[in-house]
Amino acid sequence: MAYRKTPTEVRRLAAARERLVDSATAVVAEVGWTQASVTAVADSAGIAAGSVYQHFPSKAALAVEVFRRAAGREVDVLGEVLHHPDGSPVERLARGVEVFARRALENRGLAYALLAAPAEPAVGAERLDFRRRYRALFTDVLHEGMAAGLLPAQNGEITAAALTGAIGEVLVDPLGAHDENDVDELLAELVAMALRCAGAPPETPPQTPPDTPRA
Amino acid sequence: MAYRKTPTEVRRLAAARERLVDSATAVVAEVGWTQASVTAVADSAGIAAGSVYQHFPSKAALAVEVFRRAAGREVDVLGEVLHHPDGSPVERLARGVEVFARRALENRGLAYALLAAPAEPAVGAERLDFRRRYRALFTDVLHEGMAAGLLPAQNGEITAAALTGAIGEVLVDPLGAHDENDVDELLAELVAMALRCAGAPPETPPQTPPDTPRA
DNA sequence: GTCTATAGAAGGATAGAC
DNA sequence: GTCTATCCTTCTATAGAC
Fold first, then answer.
1. Residue B152 lies in a domain
2. Residue A116 near residue A175 (C-beta atoms within 8 A)
C-alpha cells in the first residue's frame, strides 16, 4: 500500500467494494438477511471475513448498502415507466404495476428480502424510506390522472400509499412460494386491483357502449 | 418457596408476568422497539432488569409476546366487526376498515410499533404471521360480497392481501405525525379507497336518485 | 431446613462522544 | 482513535414461602 492512494489503487478498492456488494446481494437473495452471515458473504466475494470491515464499518452498514442498491434500481425502473412520455396516466399506472411485479417475480429471493423478509432495524428503517419514494411516484401519476379526468377525485397521497402497500403485500405470498403457478393471472389480477383502487373504470365495461374511442 | 408451587404462587407469578408484558407494551408504545431497553421496561414494571429473565429467556422473546398480545387484540376486534351478523358484507368491510384505523389512530405509538417501526427480525417474523391473519379475515368478507353479488368477480385472496397492505401503509404517515389533523377526513378517504379496491360501487352515485333508503 | 424468585452488580460487547 | 456509556445477559447473595 502507498502513503497516498494512487488512482489505480482507488479504482481497485472501489471495484473490490462493488464485488462485495454484488456478492452480498446474491447471498441475501438466496438465503435471506438472517442467514447471510459475514463469512458467507465474504466467501462468496472471495475475500476473508475480516476484509469485509475494510469496506464497511459493520455488517448492518453492508446490509443497508445492499438494500439501497437493489431497492434504488426498482424505484428508478418504476419511475421511468410511470413518467414515460407515452400513454395516459392510467395506462402508465397499469404498466408500472405490471413491470414492478414482473421484475419482483423474476428475482423472487431478492424481492422478498426487499419487501417483507424480517431484517435488522437498520434495514427496516431503509424500507420505510424507500416506501416513501414509491408513494411519491404513484402520487404524481394519480394527480395526473385526476387532472386528465381519468380518475375520480381522491386524496392522491392516500391512494398512493395504498397502492404501495397493496402491491407489496400481494406479492409476499407468491414470492415466498417457489413454484411459479400462473404468473400471468396474478399480474392481471394485481393490475386490475390497482386500477380499481385508483378508481379507474374497468377497461371493458359490459353495459356502457364504448362511444369514447380514446379513454 | 415450596417444593411444589402452590396455587397462590402460580397466580402470583402469572400476575408478575402479565404486569411485565403490560409495562413493556406501554414502553414500546411510547419510545418504540429500539429504545425499549430491558432496564427501561423493568423499571416501568417495578422489578430489576435481571428479573425479566425469570419470565422470558431473552429480550426478543418478550418483544414477541408484546407484539402477539397487542396484534392479537386487533385481529380479534377486526374479526368481530367483519363477521358481525348485521349488515351487508360491503358495509361490514367498510366498518371494519374504519374501526381498525380509528383504533390505530387512538393508540398511535403502539399502532406504529405494530405496523411499521423497524424491529428485530423475531418481531418482523411475527408481523408477517399476523398480516396473514388479517388477509384471511378480509378474504372471507370479500367472498361473501361476491356471493351476494355486491362485489365484482375477483381473486379474493389477492384483494384481501391488497387491503391488508394498503390500510397499513396508509396509516404509517398519520401514525408518525403527532398532530391529529383531520382524522375524520383520513378515515373517509381510507374507507372509500378500500371500497374502490374491492370493487364496491360508490355509496352515493350522483346520477341515480336514492330510491332505496336502506342500502 | 430447603428451594426458588428477586435484586443488584458484574461481564462482555457495542455504539456514540470527544 | 480512544474512551465512556449503555446495552443485554449472567451470576451471586438474599429473602421469603413452604
1. yes
2. yes
Residue B194 lies in a domain: yes
The pTM of the full predicted model, rounded to 2 decimals, is 0.89
The three cell numbers locating residue A207:
353495459
Q: Which residues of A touch B (CB under 8 A)?
A: 33-34, 116-125, 127-128, 131, 135, 152, 154-155, 157-159, 161-170, 172-173, 185-186, 189-190, 192-193, 196-199, 202
Looking at per-residue pLDDT, the higher value among B4 and B169 belongs to B169
The string of DSSP codes covering A30-58 is HH-TTT--HHHHHHHHTS-GGGHHHH-SS
Q: What is the CATH number of the domain that holds B116?
A: 1.10.357.10
**Is position A188 within any domain?**
yes
A81-90 average pLDDT score:
96
List, for residues B140-149, the tens digit of each pLDDT value: 999 999 999 9
In Å, what is the CA distance from A93 to each residue of A103, A139, A167, B10? Answer: 15, 10, 12, 59
- Chosen from A131, A163, A164, A169 to mutate, greatest number of chain B CBs within 10 A: A169
CA atoms within 13 A on the CB side of A84: 17
The predicted pLDDT at position A99 comes to: 98
